[in-house]
Amino acid sequence: MKLAVIAGRGDLPKHVVAAARENSQLKSIIALEGFANLSDYPNAKSYRVGEFGRIVKYLKKEEVTHVCFCGNVDRPDFSKIKPDLKAMFYLPGTIKAASKGDDALLRHLLGLFEKEGFQYVSPQDVCAPLLMPEGTLGDISLNDIHRADALSACHIAQSIGALDIGQGAVVARGVTLAVEAQEGTDAMLLRVATLPQALRGSAANRVGVLAKMVKPTQDTRIDLPVIGLKTLQHAANAGLAGVVAEAGGAFFLDKAATIDFANANGLFILGLPAKLES
Amino acid sequence: MKLAVIAGRGDLPKHVVAAARENSQLKSIIALEGFANLSDYPNAKSYRVGEFGRIVKYLKKEEVTHVCFCGNVDRPDFSKIKPDLKAMFYLPGTIKAASKGDDALLRHLLGLFEKEGFQYVSPQDVCAPLLMPEGTLGDISLNDIHRADALSACHIAQSIGALDIGQGAVVARGVTLAVEAQEGTDAMLLRVATLPQALRGSAANRVGVLAKMVKPTQDTRIDLPVIGLKTLQHAANAGLAGVVAEAGGAFFLDKAATIDFANANGLFILGLPAKLES
C-alpha cells in the first residue's frame, strides 16, 4: 500500500500522518488549503478543495494506491469553489449529494476517489491505538447523577445522529442543555457555559455530561467524532462533570495530557459501547 | 370563571391579559419576579417562584377559580429558591419532576394548582385568535428549495421535540444548521448568523427556514411555541428565507407588524399542520 493522507483541520491528521510514517506506508500528504496548516506537514502539497483534477493527477504521479481523509473540512460554497476541469465534471453530482446532508456528501466524495482508481483507508485503519477504549479513563469516577446523565447524553447524541443533525449533546440532571449541529463541539460547549448556573454545573459542583457518538447511519470510514485536550478544557469551563465518547467509534487524542487535565480539574472520561443494555 | 393570569417573561402574557380583560374574565394578575415586568401589568401582584403558598393564599382571597400560565420562566435553581412553607412541602416532588425534563416539570406545576382547587385554562382558550393560521401569511411565497427546507425543518423540530430537546430547528438546503435546546430561539438564530455564508443565506440571497413546532409528547395547555416580530428580525439577520410554525399549535404575536417586516425584508411566514402528508 502506498498511502496518501488528505488532511483537513485539527489534530487528527497529524496523528494519522505520524502513525503512517512509522509503518512506512506514507507516500504523500495533501494539506487542503484553508483547513490544514502546510507548516504542520513537511513535504506536503497544498491544494484547494476545488482542484480535484490536480489532486488526482498528483496522486497518480506519486503512484499512490490508497487515500485516507482526516480532519475537518467545512461544507464548501459551491458558487465560489473555482473547480478545475475534473471537479467541474463531478460538480453537479456533488451539489446534489450535499443537499442530502453531511453524510451523503462525504460518502459521495469518497466514491469519487474510488472511481479514480484509489482504494480508501480509514483513519482508524491507519491508527487503531487512537480509538477510544471502553471504561473509565483517569482517576475520576461517576456518581449516580453523572451516570444517568452519561447514558442520557449518549442516547440524545445517537438520536440526533440518526437525524444527521450532529454527533454531540450535553445533558445535565436529565435536561438536554445543548445539541450540536453545524456549529461544532467547542461552540456548543461555549454556549453551555453561558446558560444560567441553575441549569449547568460549576467548577465547585460539576454537573452535566458531553457525549460524542457516531451517527448510527453514517459511513464510519470518515468523520468519526474526536475528543482531546481542548474538548475537556471546554467541558471544564462549562461546569460539566465529564465527557463520554463511543468506545471504538471515536478518536481520543493526546491521551496522557487530556487525562492529566481531567484528573486535575475533577472531570471523568468514559468510553461506552454504541449499543448499551438499557 | 374568575381568572388569574400568572405571567412570565415575554409578550404572550400581555396579549392574554388584554384578551381576558376584554371578556371580563380577568380577576387577578401575578407577575413572577425576575421574569414579568410589574410595570407592564397595572394592579398585578408580584411573587417569587418559591412563594407558592403565598400565591395560593392570594388567589383564594381573590376568589379566583381558574388560572392560566403564560410567558417564559427559566428552570429554577432549587438550591436557591427560598421556598415558603407550602412550596417546601411540594419541593421534593417538584425536583424529581424537573429531573425528567421540561415537560414533566410544567405538567407537575400545573397539577399543583389543580391540587389546590383551581381549574387550569390554557392561553389559547383565553385567546384563540393569537394562534397561527394555516397557509402563507404576507406577500412572499416559497420556491421549491424553501418548501423542501420548510418540510424538513418541521420534521427535525418535531423529532427533537419528541426527545424533549426543544421546539425549534433551522434547515438550509437540506442541512440542519442548528437545533434549539435550552438556549432559546433568539440565541439559536444569532448562532446561525455566525455560521459560514456557504451554509446559510444572506439578505441578497435568502436560504434556510426556522421551524417552531409543538413537541409531540408535550401538554399543549402550556408552553406552546411563539413567533413574532423579534423572531422574524433574527431570522432575517441570519439570512433565512422564512419561518414556519405549527398551525393552531403556535402563537403568532403582533401579526400586522410582523407581516409588514417580513414583506419588507423578503421573508415568508408559513403555517403548517402538525401532521403532514409526506
From TrEMBL, chains A, B:
<feature type="domain" description="LpxI C-terminal">
    <location>
        <begin position="133"/>
        <end position="269"/>
    </location>
</feature>
<feature type="domain" description="LpxI N-terminal">
    <location>
        <begin position="2"/>
        <end position="128"/>
    </location>
</feature>
<dbReference type="InterPro" id="IPR053174">
    <property type="entry name" value="LpxI"/>
</dbReference>
<protein>
    <recommendedName>
        <fullName>Phosphatidate cytidylyltransferase</fullName>
    </recommendedName>
</protein>
<dbReference type="Pfam" id="PF17930">
    <property type="entry name" value="LpxI_N"/>
</dbReference>
<dbReference type="InterPro" id="IPR041255">
    <property type="entry name" value="LpxI_N"/>
</dbReference>
<dbReference type="Pfam" id="PF06230">
    <property type="entry name" value="LpxI_C"/>
</dbReference>
<dbReference type="InterPro" id="IPR043167">
    <property type="entry name" value="LpxI_C_sf"/>
</dbReference>
<dbReference type="InterPro" id="IPR010415">
    <property type="entry name" value="LpxI_C"/>
</dbReference>
